[in-house]
Amino acid sequence: MVFLTEKEMIDRINILKKEKNAVILTHNYQLGEVQDIADFVGDSLELSIKAADTDAEVIVFCGVTFMAETAYILSPDKTVLLPRLESGCPMADMADVTEVRALKAKHPDAITICYVNSTADVKTECDLCVTSANAVQIVNTIPKDREIIFVPDKNLGAFVEQQTGRKMILWPGFCPTHMRITPKDLKKRKMENPNAAVIVHPEARLDVLALADEALSTGGMCRFAKETDKKTIIVATEMGMIYRLQKENPDKHFIPVSEQAICPNMKMTRIDDVLNSLENMQNKITVPDAVRIKAKSAITKMIDLSKKLMK
Ligand code: 13P
Ligand code: SF4
Predict the structure, then answer these.
(1) Which residue of 43, 146, 151, 223 could cross-link 219, Cys pair, CB 3.0 to 4.6 Å?
(2) Which domain holds residue 247?
(3) Does the Cβ of 119 fall within 6 Å of ligand 1?
(4) What is the tally of structural domains in the chain?
(5) Is there an atom of ligand 2 within 6 Å of 156 CB?
(6) Residues 12 and 83 in one domain
(7) DSSP alpha helices (H): ranges in the chain?
(8) What pLDDT, in 10s, does the model give residues 50-75?
């Protein structure tokens, strides 16, 4: 067995990337070492758009299963690799397609919207997909008289209800990592840093969001951090976020609300997994065509709507 130093691993990854025409897409919650070797680091929406638009033949997705599935659904002619096969999203797994069908049967006229953090199977049952970056704007485009089923995040759903004034049928799923962030923790951080800005991810509970200056996707947090005049920013989301914020804004100070907010799935991937994945072309993520084609419609509608709404 040959042991490589970190520098040797990075050099080898760069050689393999050229040889195989590969791109590394990495989510904002990944370990710093994995963010540093990425071609692009972003939130779920930004990563989906990159996966759809890239000319590379191979996408190494450093994130969780639903993200790699989304990349494959959008670009089935590419090879999509997930360096750690076990890195799932517990929230996505809280909605099962059979149960979603049963709920839809009770509300036959409803529009079904899924958070991108859902399985490909669940997406086949949905009219539209959203991410935390566009959920409010997309729900605002739905005619007022249409009932809406929102799957699977009850916290993001409650936030969207509050922002749009729409009542939706909410699936009872949640992100276990964001659930660990409590109002008590955030109040304590605010007391300690009275002049700080407070940014919260909408996967957090409404009583945490109530204490925020801004509710933002992880990509929105990056933009906010660059633009704000505040020098201290309290960040209520998964801990990995602090790495990128601090790296891009060395003159500012970022304070996590809770050091318990670590997503174990987002932390599985290391540089050696990325190297192994590229070297051996594993683990290939695919979705059967029957599922892929149905699921794709909800995702492409979201991307098209987002591009229009962002203009
Ligand atoms: P965004 O990066 O899209 O804000 O999503 C956060 C998340 O929990 C991804 O699993
Ligand atoms: Fe899923 Fe939450 Fe982890 Fe994101 S942070 S992958 S929503 S469990």
Answers:
(1) 43
(2) 177-256
(3) no
(4) 3
(5) no
(6) yes
(7) 6-20, 32-36, 44-53, 65-74, 97-106, 120-124, 135-139, 154-164, 176-179, 183-192, 206-209, 218-227, 241-248, 271-280, 289-310
(8) 999 999 999 999 999 999 999 999 99
Give the chain's length: 311
- For 258-283, what is each residue's pLDDT tens digit? 999 999 999 999 999 999 999 999 99
Ligand 1 atom nearest residue 175's Cα: 8
**Measured in angstroms, how far is the CA atom of residue 15 from the centroid of ligand 2?**
31
Query: Which segments of 190-241 are extended strands (E)?
Result: 197-200, 214-215, 232-236
Separation of CA 156 and ligand 1 centre (Å): 11
How much is the pTM? 0.96
181 lines ligand 2 (CB under 6 A): no
Shared domain for 121 and 248, answered yes or no, is no
**23-60 pLDDT, tens per residue?**
999 999 999 999 999 999 999 989 999 999 999 999 99
Q: Is residue 15 part of a domain?
A: yes
Query: Which residue among 86, 153, 175, 203 has the greatest number of ligand 2 atoms within 8 angstroms of its CB, and so is best to mutate?
Result: 175
- Whether the pLDDT of residue 311 is over 80: the answer is no
Instruction: State how far the Cα of 83 lies from the Cα of 66, in Å rounded to an integer.
Output: 13
8 A C-beta contact, residue 88 and residue 64: yes
Rounded to an integer, what distance in angstroms lies between the CA atom of residue 62 and that of residue 43?
12
Q: Which of 29, 43, 64 to mutate to test the pocket of ligand 2 (most atoms within 8 A of CB)?
A: 64
- Looking at the fold, whether 11 and 83 belong to one and the same domain comes out as yes
Tell me whether residue 212 is in a domain.
yes
What spacing in Å lies between the alpha carbon of 88 and ligand 2's midpoint?
8
* Confidence (pLDDT) at 2: 75
pLDDT of residue 3: 87
Residues 196, 189: Cα–Cα separation, whole Å: 9
